[in-house]
């Protein structure tokens, strides 16, 4: 049969984002003032909270597109590690680049990072396709940095688009994938016969 099995880590991530939408976003949102006063978890959870239902739907659709492009998604342990890395990388980057930013909600920065990680991992199978994805993402970031197209998205999601989070996610994804490639893999032990 020609059907594909459901990718469990990607499905779990989608379910997590949907479930967290039921939690008041104000208790999860990235807010530097509260993170500095001890609510450090916001450095992670702010990237899992959303402004409204349309914002969540856009991020879930983006995740579905990434999954369609790279059906061999990340294993659960790698996905969890990558997301933790990306959330902290983006959060610390936002603190450094936009110290005046009062708050942030959204998965789109992590989405850019996951796309970069999967594209770099995909070089083994199809260099042209993966390079094209990276070039398209980089081009999108250049367009966003010029402020083009952000107003329509901001109207839809009910808040400003923080394109710097997208750029930081992309950079964090490239760094994560690059470090993963440099890390020596331990050979699997064969079981005794």
Automatic annotation (TrEMBL):
Q: Which residues cross the membrane?
A: 51-70, 77-98, 104-121, 128-151, 163-182
In the bilayer, the protein is annotated as: Multi-pass membrane protein
Q: What is its EC number?
A: 3.4.21.-
Q: Which InterPro entries match?
A: Peptidase_S54_rhomboid_dom (IPR022764), Rhom-like_SP_proteobac (IPR023826), Rhomboid-like_sf (IPR035952)
An example of a GO molecular function for this protein is: hydrolase activity
Give the record's keywords alphabetically. Answer: Hydrolase, Membrane, Transmembrane, Transmembrane helix
Instruction: List, alphabetically, the NCBIfam families matched.
Output: rhom_GG_sort
- Keyword Cell inner membrane attached: no
Q: What's one Pfam family here?
A: Rhomboid
Question: Which SUPFAM superfamilies does its entry note?
Answer: Rhomboid-like (SSF144091)
Cellular location of this protein?
Membrane
Query: What is this protein's gene name?
Result: rrtA
Q: What protein am I looking at?
A: Rhombosortase
List, for all copies, the residue spans of the domain called Peptidase S54 rhomboid.
38-178
